[in-house]
Amino acid sequence: xxxxxxxxxxxxxxxxxxxxxxxxxxxxxxxxxxxxxxxxxxxxxxxxxxxxxxxxxxxxxxxxxxxxxxxxxxxxxxxxxxxxxxxxxxxxxxxxxxxxxxxxxxxxxxxxxxxxxxxxxxxx
Length: 124
Known about the structure:
This protein has 124 residues and is of the alpha+beta class. 36% of the residues lie in helices and 27% in strands.
C-alpha cells in the first residue's frame, strides 16, 4: 500500500488566482515534507497577495501542518509568490527536523522511574 495516499495537501489563495503551475510548484515543494516525516496527516498552504503592502512583503505564505502530536504553523513574506513558497517549505522543514531531533534526544535520555508506595514490596 502506498503511504502517499494518506497525505493531504490543501492549497488556497487569498486575493490571488492559483494557476496550475503555482499549484504544481507547491505540490513539488511539499513532497519533500511528506518524504521527511511520514506521520504528517495534512498540510494546508495559504498564499496571500496584498497589493497595498510594500514590494518586499507583498506575498505572504502561511503553512499549517497537521501531524500526530502538536500541529505546526509558519508564516513567511517575500516579494515573489514562488519565493515565498520556497521559504515556507524550508522553514517547515527546519521545524520538522528540530522536532525529530528533540524526540530522538528525549528517547535516549534515561528517565527516572516513579513508583507509588503501594506498589513497592514491604521491607523485612
